[in-house]
Write a structure and sequence with these properties.
heterodimer; A: alpha/beta; 26% helix
Amino acid sequence: MSKAAFKGGVHPPERKEATSSSATQWAPVPGRLVIPMSQHLGAPCQPVVAVGDRVVRGQVVGTVDAMVSAPVHSPVSGEVTAVGPWLTAGGTRVTSVTIVPDAEQDLDSFVPVEGDDVRTLVRAAGIVGMGGATFPSAVKLTPPKGLDVSTVILNGCECEPFLTCDHRLMLEESERVVAGARIIAETVGAKRVVIGIEANKPDAIAAMQKAAGDGVEILSLVTRYPQGAEKQLIWALLRREVPHGKLPAAAGALVHNVATAVAIADAVELHKPLMERIVTVTGRVARPGNYRVLLGTLVSDLLEMAGGIVGEPGRVIAGGPMTGPALGDLDVPIAKGSSGIVVLSPDEAAPLVDDDQPCIRCGRCTEGCPMFLQPFQIGTQANRRDWTAAEPLHPVDCIECGVCSYVCPTKRPLLQLIRLAKAAVIAKGAKL
Amino acid sequence: MSDTSTGSTRLAVTSSPHIAAGVTCSNIMLWVVGSLAPAAVWAMISMGWPAVQLFALCIGSSLLTEFAWNAIAKKKQTLMDGSALVTGTLLAMCMPPMLPWWMAVFAGLIAIGLGKMIFGGLGWNLFNPALVGRAFVLLSWSGVLSKLPNKGWFATLDIPAKGGLDAISGATRLAVAAADRAASGGYGFSLAEQYQPLLWRNLEGSLGEVSAALLILGGLVLLAKGIIDWRIPAGYIGTVAALSWAFGSDPIFQVLAGGVLLGAFFMATDYVSSPMTRNGRLVFGIGCGLFNVVGRFFGPSPESTTFAILFMNGLAPLIDKMFTPRTFGWVKRDEE
């Protein structure tokens, strides 16, 4: 087994066994879909349909003329019943198009996207980083001038506990992952393609090795969170450090999630827009599993499809439990970056700490921080609101993986404090 | 954090991460006490009732001081974090068994009051509270201490001393060795023959000197549980051994005798008063060992562990500052 890994991190209980062997199945078409105009980083789309319009599967319902953006499509044929603000998983209200699907759906057909080259097709298909970062993929396929991307890395780590959607994808659609990787490498002119997978998925590693063929390397990585964080992954695989404030291209690398690679292959080879994705629904639900979900399906409907919540839920998380936002309202739509819905019981969820516990200077946060920060010190300065003292501690470099809060024996809200410091220091004018 | 109602389900909305490691402050402290337990219980069995009394007095006084301080200051009670229990236990471990009861009570009061609470409680103290208590007793009543029958109920020290040790009723193996060395530059007995009693049943000295083997066992438990970082005890013990050898003494004897093992595994590793950076911890351990050995061979008293660690406690923030690692990605200009 490979010993490749980054420095620091933790190994929380994986909790993947509930869904790692359950084959992906289609989630039923829900009674309504809510399509947010912003499911990506960058400029939000403008709706191009109005209430009462008929739409068909694959039709564009929102787009905008901006470099960093991605259009959104209707995953079904049906009727637009509302256009207006809707709460999203991130906690903000976003202009969204509500579509009531027709009774009969043909999920095999769609309006194809048009374009002559890879970047145009990827842009038109609305593809964004599906690991959760949701950065528009077409932009990433256009590295800045003067930077030579020699290696394309596909991220198959899936280091977050509970999640298995990428695991299943690599097992069930190995060839598509490889096809996507080749398209990306060809587009940016990279000579080397590396697919990094954590060692806790030996079946996925085997399947990918079988599918890989010439010029695609499958590398196994130590199972440790956050192995799938971009900078950590690049270091683990290439022993290259992405300089502060620079793109991974500055280290000669371009990283895409495996699900994004499949979406890119579908867009380029089948002219298929991004309309559905695999979502791991797990934790305290009756039928945990991996579901192929139409984008815009409400979490409440998806949970019902999975048999509903079992017992009293402590926390419902969109994504993995280390980084995903906790949902206060379950009527939020599944979007392009939604990798999972995890229902935790009150006992499993991190305790709700409402008083100030002292730091005992045990050093666990320092040892775990994959960016080599001193989380306790940033936390202390954030508590004092002393942003001048916080700035040289580099809160801006924090990748918000949550390791510091996770390991803290006195349950100090370290990541929350660092987020405060980060925002304040950026507001002061620090360079990202 | 707020509760939002969604139909019949009420969901807590919190900042990520939403799971937490099971380790808590109180279970860390209980592991420390548990690791000290074999050595402590064996000390009580070996030294008899005075040792039991001493544990009760030191722990009781430490807990009571913290309770009273919080009550008077109208602060939340903090006894359940377990740190006062650790301080009380360590305090007893570094005291001789025949210590007058009022001195033990005073030691607990000073350790918790001046060693910890006055700084703002757990996490804010610069020095190891137990060592502050011990240092206070050592400095205030050195005359009384030197005349103590320093042997519990059962001790018999059968080492022929070359130096003028007759006046010291509380002689320890280390003190005899140091006096010999000071008087003649050599030793009037075989240091290697002292390994056995030091390892298993040494009744001359503090409660924490009874069994080096059980202290090592406790230290290994803390290392295996990931509660302490190997860098501090390794730096400390390694330095003591190396320097002792360099100064012409027996390195194993010097490690086993006196407070080195208790200091290296249980005192210098105190989270609050030691560095948090990896390299800083190694340097801290080496510094403790250095001052421990220098104190032993050239200081006024061979029992120099207390002041070696307290001195390095004072340097810990500076050491952390010096050894703060470079933030990932902040590569040097020429590498960019």
